[in-house]
Amino acid sequence: MESRGKKLDVLLSAEQLDQRCRQLGEEISRDYAGEELHAVAVLKGSFMFLADLVRYIDVDVSIDFLGLSSYGSRKATSGVVRMTSDLALPIKERHVLIVEDIIDTGLTMKYLLDNLKTRMPRSLATCTLLDKPSNRRVDVPVDYVGFEIPDKFVIGYGLDDAEFSRHLPYIGVVSQDKDG
Ligand code: IMP
Ligand code: MG
Q1: Which CATH architecture has domain 13-162?
Q2: Number of the ligand 1 atom closest to the C-alpha atom of 153
């Protein structure tokens, strides 16, 4: 596989991603049976995961988005997280599920949990498609994990390489840059 002249190894295929979304959707539906769920997805990386996950959720679910970004170089978090766009809807008294693409150092999720807790949700849980536990700098509770992956830079299925490659239907690891 290739994207923008870089060779990619497929880490998770479209089929594996779909199958795991189904399992997670079914688990979430069981856990929230009889309740209304409010899914909060973090832009931009989780847009594809959210879209696939909610298709397998069969409790009443509302959806909102927020934007976060961390300053720093392309492939490493600086630790300074900033909100680039806030939620459109209040979350007070709602059962909130944060939907993330990947948890790496944990700093982004920590920032988000601290921020959303102050808004008094009825409950607050976290779901991430990918988890890189070996790179954690702060402890964050993760309720639903799609896949644990090694500490490698991954792209596709929402995740970007300098804003490109988000459209790939699979998750890949860059194995070789175009200049070798
Ligand atoms: P954390 O704050 O270090 O946990 O990083 C979380 C954010 O960094 C994610 O929401 C991603 O936007 C980005 N990120 C971390 N690892 C990767 C990766 O392997 N590929 C693409 N983005 C990543
Ligand atoms: Mg992200």
Answers
A1: 3-Layer(aba) Sandwich (3.40)
A2: 19
